[in-house]
Amino acid sequence: MAKVLVTGAAGFLGSHLCDRFIKEGHEVIGMDNLITGNIRNLEHLFPLEQFTFYYQDVSNYVHVSGDLDYILHFASPASPIDYLKIPIQTLKVSSLGTHNLLGLAKAKSAKILVASTSEVYGDPLVHPQTEEYWGNVNPIGPRGVYDEAKRFQEAITMAYHTFHNVDIAIVRIFNTYGPRMRLNDGRVLPAFIGQALRGEDLTVFGDGSQTRSFCYVDDLVEGIYRLLKSDYHLPMNIGNPDEITIADFAQEIIKLTGTNQKVVYKELPKDDPLQRQPNIDKAREILGWEPKVSRSEGLKITYDYFKSLDSDELYRKEHNDFTKYIIK
Ligand code: UDP
């Protein structure tokens, strides 16, 4: 049994990772400052002996007593709306926070896996994106606070590997979806499903010709689990190469939800990447991994999850009312 620290544990990906490590029989410490995370995503784990929650901001200082085998750094705002609302925290968590966690990994002789992103490729001029592509990022645009912090995160993680011999893994995560996404974080899938459920028109930004490739969360978690267990140290893309335009995606959501609403077009946000699709040859070859869940299967599960939320949740702008929960 290993002891695993997951930062950003109350977030969408962090909470699914906690579930996976618990399922594998490991001891899990979930850490979060709950700025964008929702403690409800972890509620089901609180009664378990194997699970402990630490309410800490990793950008300030990280303290964990005892041994640690693995650290998974998944704390960060991850939607363009969050970057605009909390740009400084976004910069800090992947720079200062990563530095603190690398120090912790070094002190505990733990392996650390950091969550990087397809955003390191910016608005890519190479398509599909391979790991060798260096990217096309605007450092001072609205996404710069996320993109550049993640690029710095890769640099400092690699430096700790080469200079301090810390065992590392770097996953470049492409658009991922599934239950526990925040309904109102502005990302396209919860935006469209939320709009359909509330009887609002679906807002497509730009002319909808921009593309994304959506990976179901269980597939992503499997890829991350395999990467952690491998001895591969260079960045690796994990995502689903099944690419779709946002306009077609809106039509899929309209069909799935059976809404009578139409599509309305809004201005395309600045620096919105025009196309995105992972090249996953490395994951296939090195990890023997590829996505298994089709978009139609994954969307159905995700829609059922959003339908099960109470109407309070559906209309609430944010849901970080964690104070009513006991934090141990
Ligand atoms: N998008 C949209 N309508 C929305 C929200 C997003 O058309 O209500 C578009 C957005 O402009 C982008 C794509 O959907 O082209 C994916 O956006 P998201 O914020 O989910 O992720 P990212 O841009 O970081 O891939």
What distance separates the N and C termini? 22 Å
Number of domains: 1
CATH architecture: 3-Layer(aba) Sandwich
Oligomeric organization of the protein chains: single chain
The 3D shape can be described as globular
Quantity of strands, as a count? 13
Bound molecules: uridine-5'-diphosphate
Major β-sheet strand ordering: 3-2-1-4-5-6-11
Structural class: alpha/beta
The name of the CATH topology is Rossmann fold
Unreliable parts? 319-328
Q: What is the number of helical segments per DSSP (H or I, 4+ residues)? A: 10
Instruction: Tell me the β content.
Output: 15-25%
The value of Rg in angstroms is 19 Å
The fourth-level CATH homologous superfamily is: NAD(P)-binding Rossmann-like Domain
Mean pLDDT: 94
Summarize the helix and strand pattern as letters: EHEEEHHEHEEHEEEHEEHEHHH
